[in-house]
Amino acid sequence: MDGRLFILLFLIISACGEAGPEGLSCPEHQQAFESSCYEFVALKSSFLSAQAWCEGGGGHLAFIQSDETQQFLQKHLQAEQDWWIGLVSTSINLTLDTEDGLIWLDGSDVVYSNWLSEPRLETGCGHINTHSGFHWKISSNCSQEYYFICEFELGRSLSCTDSTILRCGSDHVIEVEESFYGRKTPHYCRTNMSASNSRATLPQHCSWIDVRDLVAELCNGQQVCMAVADGSSSGEPCPDLGSYLSVEYHCKNRVSGVIVKRSAGDGGEDSLVQYQSTQRLGTRKGSKEKSDEDRICYSDGQSALTLLYSCSNCVNKPEKIDLRLENPNCDEINWYVEGDSKSKKKEDSFNKDCLKNGKKVLELQDDDDNTLEVKAKAIRSLKKDILVVVACQKGGTTSYGEHIILYSLLEIDKNQLKDDIKGQLTQTNRPDDTEEIKEDLLSDVSFLLEDSEALQEPSDVQFYADALKSIINDEGKVNVDAQELAGSILDVLSESLTSFDLTPDNITALTGTVKILLECASHILGAFNKDKESDIYGNIVNVADNVQTFLLINKLPDLEPDIIITPHISVYVNRLSPPNLQKEPFSFQNSLTSFKLPNLGSDIILPVDEPVDVKMSEFNIDPWIEGQPIHSFVAGLSLSKTDGSVIPVANLTEEIEIFLPRLVDTAVNSSFLDLRNFSTSMINITTPNIPLVLKLRPSEELTLLVLLGYQNYPTEENHVAKVTLPQQGDSQDERYTWVLGPSDMGIDVGIYFLLIRPVVSPGVKSINASVTITSITAQCIFWEETRSNWSDCGCRVGPKTTAEVTQCLCNHLTFFGNSFFVMPNTVDPSKSAELFSNFANNPVVVCFIGSIFLAYILTAAWARRKDLQDKAKVKISVLEDNDPFAEYRYLLKVSTGHRMGASTSSRVIVTLQGAEGECEPHHLTDPDKPVFERGGVDLFLLTTAFPLGELQSIRLWHDNSGDHPAWYVNSVMVEDLQTEQKWHFLCSSWLAVDIDDCTVERVFPVASEMEMKGFSNLFFMKTTTDFCDGHIWYSVVSRPPSSNFTRVQRVSCCFSVLLCSMLTSIMFYGIPTDPSEQTMDMGQIQLTWTQVKIGIQSSFIVFPVNLLIVGIFRHSRPRKKKTKKQKAQKQPEPPQKEKEIPYETFSPHVENDLTEDFIISDIQRITFLFGNAMRCKTQQNPGQADLSTLLSELQNLIEQQHFIHKNDTSSVFWAYTHHLFRQLENLEGEVKLLGPSGFSRPGCYSQVLQQIQSMKKLLESLCSSRPLIEQQTRSLSPKKDSGSRKGLPWWFVFVGWLLVAATSVISGYFTMLYGLKYGKDRSISWIITIAMSFTESLFFTQPIKVFCLAIFFALVVKKINFEDAELVDSLRKKTTTCSDGLNGVRLAKRDCTHRFYKPPPSSDIEKIKRNMVKQQKARALIMEILVFLGFLWMLLLVAYGQRDENGFYLTHHIRQSFSAGISDSMNHNDVFAWANSVLLSNLFGKYPGFITDGNSKLVGGARLRQVRVTRDSCKIAKSMRHAVPHCNVPYSWENEDMGSYGPGWEEFNFVNGSEDTVTAWQYQSQSTLKAVPVWGMIALYRGGGYVMDLGSDQQNASRKLQYLFDSTWLDVYTRAVFAEFTVYNANVNLFCIVTLILESTAVGAFQFHSVVQSVRLYQSTGGFQSFLMASQVFYFLFIVYYMFLQGKLLKRQKWAYFKNKWNLLDLAIIILSWSSLSVFIKRTVQGDQDIEYYQKHKDQFPSFHDTAVVDATLGYLMAFLVLLACVKLWHLLRLNPKLHLITSSLQRAWNDMSSFIVVIFIILLAYSLSCNLIFGWKLYSYKTFPDALKTIFSLQFGMFNYDEVMESEPVLGALIISTCVIFITFVILTLFVSVILEAFSEEQQDHQPSEEEEIVDLILVKILSLFGIKSKKKEPEEIHHGDKNT
Q1: pLDDT means per 10 residues in the chain (1926 residues)?
Q2: Which residues have CB under 8 Å from 1513's CB, separation 6+?
Q3: Residue 1856 near residue 1831 (C-beta atoms within 8 A)
Q4: Beta-carbon neighbour count of residue 1674 at 10 Å?
Q5: Distance CA 490, CA 421 (A)
Q6: Under DSSP, is residue 1629 helix (H, G, I), strand (E, B) or coil?
Q7: Residue 1213 in 3-state DSSP?
Q8: Distance between CA 730 and CA 733 in Å, rounded?
């Protein structure tokens, strides 16, 4: 062991480990010889201490029984030191009858000796003297301190207690040979005996007991065993001297019985056969050990096969070599390559035997085909020729082929290689870097470092360190081989740190390199994967140790530690004096890991005259590959001397306290018990033999009896453990903690019941108390290096263990750790009645769950009603204005956008433009449902007389009618139902007169495939679909009507998910928060990040349940319902039956509707439509109404078009003739129905019939010659259904409902149980957590998912999905048109005279635009006024919220209290008299700590401060120098005295006194005193001065005042005295900063003045404070809104923005607002700092002056804000005609007014200067020029003191005052007013109404009409396009 302490956290612990391989293998710090391990301890100790040290490890001082042993020991002994060995003088032995002389400690005789001379002493202890050639000597003084040698024998264990641990390696078991307990020799375990007592005898009753059978029964056949000798039955064998346990045993093979001698303490590896662990050159896959088949022992000359050799660039050092077996005919091929002949282990007999016979060891490679590729880099480091052999197995015969790869072929110049590495390093860390590239680079670097001359200078280490960091910086690309290569490189570099001449320059140069090396080690550890078995532990630990050794070079003791922190490794070093080791714990910054050493005392031998080096390291990844996986921190601590020798720490009397943090969060099992109703909790243990920590938090201090039962409720008679709390401890948490270890009880897996009973007085039946129980399982373990495993011997879990950190208490230093297993909370459903009986005390969660169920019922009822409404919307609307004979069908799918106001109330018209023609306009409407709703999709069936061909565009417009005419159309899809061809039109435009392009008509072209797959279209299509249908919460409101996933089902899914999330949250709720964790304080509610994380975790847990339920509802097919009649007729009726095309058929009651005029208009319509289809103009003669003429024109038009298109087979004419024939046939029926009597002329009836029949015959002949009609008719037949609809069967919906009900009821029930178990306070906290989870899921997780998926689909998938395509197909099949045969005469409902069939004229649009602009401006004006009024309201609330009217009364009261006894003229004595009487009596009132009447608390103490002027600061007139010796000017900053003096203002040398008295005579600056300049009545005074703190009691303050008075603290140089203090009045929650000023001019009298300012530093509680905080938030939201408006205005107006004064006003308001916010934050921070200072220094004067200044600044800013806001109100009221007239008048008169203002100012200036010169020396009102100006200005308003002027200067004063009044008041001001009046009259005559006045009139008309009041002003006409009759 190297004394290092390593700590780690993990979840599952194994037993005390397995032994290593067989054979004698000693730890690194021991040397093996024959059957023992020897440790050379460089620690000076006495003979007894040395023997005790060896016995602690199961050994003894070395016995030398042969010359070989002597020679072995001499090789390892340090020169110039003596070494104790196990040789002592003879004593009585219980079993041996030995003559007097020297014996070994076990009583055996000295057979071999190496004396310098025969010893003459009969008493003493033996040691090896190195000065005499390592001969033996006897020292009579056994207390002398030498180094010593310990021997640990194989197969023998010695323990000074009654127990020891025996262990064997893998596949071996223990066989006990001999064991006794007692004492056979007095020299073992004799710490209490004198070593110099040569005749020490054993008492006669001291014996030993044979315990072989007992130990054999325990340990035989075991791999690891703790042997225990129980001597209690026969008594203590040696009570006086004490007994020890000795065991001799051996290890036998579990199967074959082969015996291997085994030491209990060595922990080494078994090695009957040990195989070399090697790399497969160039093809290694990470295998660590070879079996017999992995290697062969090969002799040259066996080659019978031919190998072909090839390489790339063989001349210039190839990178790889290829070997191929020619003509292979083998069943199996194996390749072997020669490795390093030097074995890594001494015990590798395979290598030894093979090499002894002159053969070579070859290693099997991975390649198993006829070709082997060998990398040159992999074998170059061997520096020799390499033999490659191929073994070909055919049948039972093996033949070989061999080839030698010459080293000369691979050898490379190292300088060239170094240059190549430099070049490759510039290209590392690229995306195309591979693991192989990095491994090759590391191999090259490792090859260079094999040369001892590679590291000559510190710069070389720096180069290789930088190179290594660059290579392994990307941890994901560092494989296992690269990790081990990098580890070995690091090992070499770190060891070289101390190999240089460590001059200051070299140490400086290597300091930066050290951190780089540690960062490289961190990268290796980050890339480490335990499963891949990369062995890096040794390298990592060595690097950390070497870095720590370097950091300790030249380090002085007892200074700050040196710490280096990297992502995965941190190191700490310090050099401390031994007394300072246990003063403070050793820890890293921002880490919970810490070590606290106890008082080591005599347990550890520490150096006396030199310091101790402390090394500590921390890993956050487990670097061991042995043992079970570790998932947490590893930390280490070691103590050593300055020469590097380790100080062992073991068998301590006091325990080492270690705190071990866990790496990941773990939930805790926490439950709440109300002791009035129940007192039993259930704990689930899932790991056996793990210490259990129970932490109880009672509501009050109670004595509790705690019983623990296993699988049954415990009683006082039947329990597994019992304790009474509280126990001893420093805190309540520690006193109420119960730690149960495996030694206390056997902890098995299962359910434990914890019973808690309060211990109460007799007669008390119940107690009103509760307790919270937290159970944690944790274990402290340590790493046994010799066994490479973990053990818990000597460590225990401490009571300070929490869920974040484990406290381990250990008595030795080795590798330590702890494990965690914290169970989720459990609840016992069998106690439901007991839990619900606590409902009255904790109704929170039950009521919360009940309210959720109630909200679900109400929401589901609403959702059901909306579902019924949605059913009516799922249909195809057949247009009413379709031609009754048009049979070519188009399906229109119109999507309205989701923008605000996207729906329209206007009539929407559409026309389709195709390659073959354009259809007539159609009105898109449906009388049975609303159309064009926001986010809606409407389907329309449009018919045409002929196919339009390939569609090119679509034309949309509306008539701008209704309350909200604007329409935002998103897209339109048109499908040809005959050919099923589809066209898409991407519109995304407004059709509105006041938005976007301000147009109601647009033409949209067909979208290309590229446009359809554009990012914006796909992104918005996917986002809209997912939000409206995919988001489970949002889709409840915005669910598409066509979806099968109903609103009720969506609400139910939300309900289920919410309850499941609540259950998972409450199950894992209760993680204790870190004390350092930040909290968000929201009044009485506090939120922590732990609560937020619980909410996130709960969302992930309930995801599978959510996915299953939603998937069932979404993919279940709807149930089909058929009536009996429908089944018989086999005509399925859809749920919402569609109408046929609504054409009217003649019946007798409509016969009178037919007239001759109707026939005429029908003929004209037929002619117009035919001409329009043929794209030819037809003449309309409204005056001519002759039927024959109209029919003749129609016939001529038919013949004309036939002549034109007779050769054009693709012409529309041929398609239209069939439609025209049916129209004529219908016209014939109308004529027949009208009859001859219906015509005005006789014979007209027959003529018309004849003409119609003639045209019919013409069309029949044309149709017969062109068989296109039949083709078209056949094409109209619908296609067969391609397949059935996919999805789950309809009955799966019931499965979904069952899951919803089950999850909801179970989750709700158990959530209520948990809530009742937790208690009220914890339940409220949990509800806050679940609210955070709900908010996070609703507003963060799901929206982010939707946006990310939309981006992915738009950028990567680029697939267009039409979610309702299947629904459209089904609806299309249910929609029918007219039948093939006409059953009567049909009348079309289309009225072409409607105005909306034509787009609105541009003139009407312009009028509408102007009117809309006015309305918009009116709305904007109203909004501006309302917003500003809200802003002004918030501003006033914020401004007055910072002030309190009680502040005036408080300051007034303080001024009056302290101004008593003040006179107009006071001298120095009067000042002291006032201070002693008034000041002190009010500062220290009759209530201690309060001033005056006891309402205001004195905060801290008070202080006196004075400012002075320097001596002789002015010059005296020569004539007066003999009479006046000194002259001093009034106060100014330039003349202020800042010197330091002694008492009495003497020259400063040394002041002997207290600190307070010294500071009274020494100047302190303003920054030192934390003061600010103060305005007095005479001057502005600095914040510095000479200070005396009065303290916090009256007696002390009075004593200090007397001292100042006696020392003449106030003299002629004093210019001002300040009494400063701060009070707090809790009644009004105000701090008051008070400064009482007594200032003096140069004349000597003091004048009193006070500066009192109130500040609120503690925010008030209650509803008003919450309202005020909300007002502040809303105020700044207003400011952000104004910033947005001003930004838009600035962008539009640019530099012209700054020319408008109202813009500048808004800008000033914004700037002042943000300035106020920053000052408010500054005041809060400064106030908190001042209060914190006061809390820490309550007896000193706390300066709140900075806070007062910031608060005053905030007040000024708020005042100016209110002023500017009120000025802006004037601008908003400009719309009032009178106010506008006043503003215009002032603008008109400004030029003349400015001249008068200049004249008035000049006259006021003249009179002010004159009055100051005349009266300034004797009248107070004129003492300064500003005072004189203020007085003369007040004269103009009648505020003037005439008496003082007349008394001072009767004549001159009267003259000046009278002339001033006449000139200014009577003359100039009169002219000034007349100028304004003249401008006002001119403005009235020339006033022109502005546009804003028209807007105001419009607003008034609207408001009056709203209340039904008629206005004289006419409302602007609104233009509506549409049929007024409609």
Answers
A1: 36 31 64 88 87 84 89 83 86 44 84 79 80 83 89 84 73 83 82 44 67 83 75 68 84 49 32 28 37 68 67 64 79 81 50 72 75 76 78 81 76 70 69 73 77 75 83 79 82 82 77 86 78 66 86 85 87 88 82 84 75 87 64 76 81 83 64 74 77 86 86 82 86 86 72 84 74 83 65 81 84 56 52 67 81 87 81 77 80 86 88 84 86 85 85 88 86 87 88 81 85 69 65 69 76 82 71 41 47 56 69 72 47 42 42 68 75 67 65 76 70 73 76 76 77 76 57 43 58 80 81 77 77 70 68 64 55 48 52 69 75 74 82 87 81 87 82 88 84 86 91 77 77 88 76 63 88 88 91 86 89 90 88 91 81 84 73 88 88 86 88 90 89 85 89 89 85 66 76 79 84 80 83 78 78 80 76 80 69 64 66 45 38
A2: 1527, 1528, 1529, 1535
A3: no
A4: 16
A5: 17
A6: coil
A7: helix
A8: 8
Max CA separation in the chain (angstroms): 173
- Here the tokens at position 342 are 């030097």
Classify each residue of 959-981 as buried b or exposed e, where b means 16 or more C-beta atoms within 10 Å of its C-beta. Answer: bbbeeebbbbbbbbbbbbbbeee
- The number of angstroms, rounded, from the C-alpha of 823 to the middle of its chain's C-alpha atoms is 26
Nearest CA among 1477, 1475, 1755 for reference residue 1621:
1475
β-bridge pairing 1001-1005 and 1079-1082: unpaired
And the tokens for 1037? 């409101």
Report yes or no: 236 and 248 within 8 Å, Cβ to Cβ.
Answer: no
Rg of the Cα atoms in the chain: 52
Work out whether strand 208-210 and strand 135-139 pair parallel, antiparallel, or are unpaired. unpaired
CB distance 975 to 891 below 8 Å: yes
Alpha helices in 932-1046 (DSSP H): 1009-1012, 1015-1025, 1035-1038
User: What are the b/e assignments for 1268-1296, b being 16+ CB within 10 Å?
Assistant: ebeebeeeeeeeeeeeeeeebeeebbebb
Taking a C-beta distance cutoff of 8 angstroms, is the pair 70, 56 a contact? no
The 10 Å Cβ neighbour count of residue 555 is: 15
CB 546 within 8 A of CB 494: yes
Whole-angstrom CA distances from 1871 to 1408, 1783, 1863 are: 51, 20, 11
Inter-CA distances, 1053 with 712, 855, 1039, 1065, Å: 40, 14, 14, 18
Q: Tokens 């998938």 correspond to what residue?
A: 1357
Among 1926, 890, 889, 922, residue whose Cα is nearest residue 1390? 922
DSSP summary character for residue 779: E
- Integer CA distances (angstroms), 7 to 801, 810, 814, 1778, in order: 15, 12, 9, 86
Q: Find out whether 1819 and 1845 touch, Cβ atoms under 8 Å.
A: yes
- CA atoms lying within 13 Å on the CB side of residue 574: 18
The arrangement of strands across the sheet holding 594-596 comes to: 586-587, 594-596, 656-661, 805-810, 795-797
Q: 393-396: long-range contacts at Cβ-Cβ below 8 A with a sequence spacing of 24 or more?
A: 393/330, 393/331, 393/332, 393/333, 393/334, 394/329, 394/330, 394/331, 395/331
Is 651 in contact with 53 (CB distance < 8 Å)? no
Q: Is 1268 helix (H, G, I), strand (E, B) or coil?
A: helix
Its pTM stands at: 0.43
Please say whether the beta carbons of 1671 and 1441 come within 8 A. yes
For the record, the structure tokens of 858 come out as 């109400």
CB 439 within 8 A of CB 282: no
Contact 525, 623 (CB under 8 A): yes
Give the burial class of 432: count Cβ atoms within 10 A of its Cβ; 0-12 exposed, 13-18 middle, 19 or more buried: exposed
